[in-house]
Amino acid sequence: MVLGITGGIGSGKSVVCRVFSILGAPVFSADDEARIIMETDPGIMNEVEKAAGEKVYENGVLNRKKLAALIFNDREKLTAVNRIVHPAVFDRFRRWKENNSAPLVIFESAILFESGADKLADRVLNVYAPAEIRTERVMERNSLSEQEVVERIRNQWSDEQRSELSDYIINNSGNELILPSILRIYRELISLSGR
User: Fold this and answer.
1) For 50-53, which contacts have Cβ atoms below 8 Å and span 24 or more sequence positions?
2) pLDDT of residue 137
3) Domain 1-26+102-195 - what CATH class?
4) DSSP string spanning 26-65?
5) What is d(CA 15, CA 120) in angstroms, rounded to the nearest whole number?
6) Residue 3: what are its φ and ψ, rounded to 5°?
7) Angle between helices 131-142 and 146-154 (to 10 degrees)
8) What is the CA angle 135-141-144, rounded to 5?
9) Rounded distance, CA 76 to CA 78, Å?
10) Which residue has the higher pLDDT, 150 or 119?
11) Where are the domains of the chain?
12) Which residues lie closer than 8 Å to 97 by C-beta, 6 or more apart?
């Protein structure tokens, strides 16, 4: 079974994934894999720089802040970069999954639906938190300005859009305990896997 875990930036996907991992469900982070690919695959690096329209690599190292400034303000560039990176991430996930014997694996992605990765999952969990809380978390965690965080949030689907297409929803605003929900979902998916 593949559980896709999604949620807006700062919603707390990583916390939820950590709990699933402790329970025994290996986690594939699409964002981490995309970073690795964008910094190690020369073909992808070349294509990303072309799509960005400016030099975003310095001595083979991706200038993330510069790339983010370019693509989060230009939907065409963002789409172009995603079209280059997503297929490579999906290929890595398929290979990773084949080499995994766990009854449940997690595919974590902030843009699960936008990228089409939901098609790789049997079920989808949306992690929700109000925009104000998410903005505070990301500003603190990534040392970004409020405007930078708002731009990133604007480039993602709304919680309503994600929730509508998700099988499960976890409210991670800090007001509810998330562990009981995670345990219930984990048990249900393990039983569905037949193992």
Assistant:
1) 51/77, 51/80, 51/81, 51/84, 52/77, 52/81, 53/77
2) 82
3) alpha beta
4) -EEEHHHHHHHHHHH-HHHHHHHHHHHTS--EETTEE-HH
5) 22
6) -105, 120
7) 120
8) 60
9) 5
10) 119
11) 1-26+102-195, 32-99
12) 2, 28, 105
User: At a CB cut-off of 8 Å and minimum separation 6, what does 181 contact?
Assistant: 168, 170
Distances (CA, A) of 153 to 7, 64, 83, 125: 10, 17, 19, 18
In one-letter notation, the amino acid at residue 124 is V
Please state, in angstroms and rounded to a whole number, the distance separating the CA atoms of residues 16 and 108. 10
- The answer to whether the predicted template modeling score (pTM) of the entire model surpasses 0.85 is yes
DSSP state string for 75-133: HHHHHHHHHHHHHHHHHHHHHHHHT---S-EEEE-TTHHHHTGGGG-SEEEEEE--HHH
Query: Which amino acid appears at position 103 of this protein?
Result: P
Task: Identify the three-state secondary structure at position 171.
Answer: strand
